[in-house]
């Protein structure tokens, strides 16, 4: 089991960070928010979970031990795989997840791409009583905006991964109180400003 790694950041691409440890490069899946916080050429420390399957070994990295603990708990929920668990953490912090579970509220999980109503409810039921050591917070919530889905689709069309696009739209909604009623063009412009240069493989506008 690889529980943590410390090393130089070689590259960050989408939701994957490449970390060099002792001359060996590790590809580590991280949330978009975590990826943005990593700086190429600088040292980074990540708590990790190694998923071993017959055809692959995949490493997932987290900025705090709480993120890793919640990820591991999510893996124990029927219907939640590693990518879905990381998707939940891309939208909700450990404290927000704890708050939703404590309130028996599955709505925040239903807003995560790939998490259906049944799985969302299972997350709440399965995690009940297991997040007692995590401080409940409600900061930076997932915010619904009327044109959000259209903006996410437009960003995906430009080459951004869906998780990254959705996170950017949510950040825009949190940063701009009037985003709920803003037109698609305005939201797209703000999201692009949030994301920076488009991926090389993205389509031209």
From TrEMBL:
Subcellular location, record wording: Cytoplasm
Protein name, per record: Holliday junction branch migration complex subunit RuvA
GO CC annotation: cytoplasm; Holliday junction helicase complex; Holliday junction resolvase complex
Pfam families attached to this UniProt entry: HHH_5, RuvA_C, RuvA_N
Keywords recorded for this protein, A-Z: Cytoplasm, DNA damage, DNA recombination, DNA repair, DNA-binding
Domain of life: Bacteria
Organism, scientific name: Labedella phragmitis
Family from the record: Belongs to the RuvA family.
Domain annotation Helix-hairpin-helix DNA-binding motif class: ranges: 72-91, 107-126
Quaternary organization: Homotetramer. Forms an RuvA(8)-RuvB(12)-Holliday junction (HJ) complex. HJ DNA is sandwiched between 2 RuvA tetramers; dsDNA enters through RuvA and exits via RuvB. An RuvB hexamer assembles on each DNA strand where it exits the tetramer. Each RuvB hexamer is contacted by two RuvA subunits (via domain III) on 2 adjacent RuvB subunits; this complex drives branch migration. In the full resolvosome a probable DNA-RuvA(4)-RuvB(12)-RuvC(2) complex forms which resolves the HJ.
Stored SMART domains: HhH1
Region of interest called Domain III, as start-end residue ranges on this chain: 143-205
Reported function: The RuvA-RuvB-RuvC complex processes Holliday junction (HJ) DNA during genetic recombination and DNA repair, while the RuvA-RuvB complex plays an important role in the rescue of blocked DNA replication forks via replication fork reversal (RFR). RuvA specifically binds to HJ cruciform DNA, conferring on it an open structure. The RuvB hexamer acts as an ATP-dependent pump, pulling dsDNA into and through the RuvAB complex. HJ branch migration allows RuvC to scan DNA until it finds its consensus sequence, where it cleaves and resolves the cruciform DNA.
Keyword Cytoplasm listed: yes
InterPro entries per record: DNA_helicase_Holl-junc_RuvA_I, Hlx-hairpin-Hlx_DNA-bd_motif, NA-bd_OB-fold, RuvA, RuvA_2-like, RuvA_C, RuvA_C_sf
GO biological process: DNA recombination; DNA repair
UniProt keyword tRNA processing present: no
Gene: ruvA
GO MF annotation: an example: four-way junction DNA binding
Domain description: Has three domains with a flexible linker between the domains II and III and assumes an 'L' shape. Domain III is highly mobile and contacts RuvB.
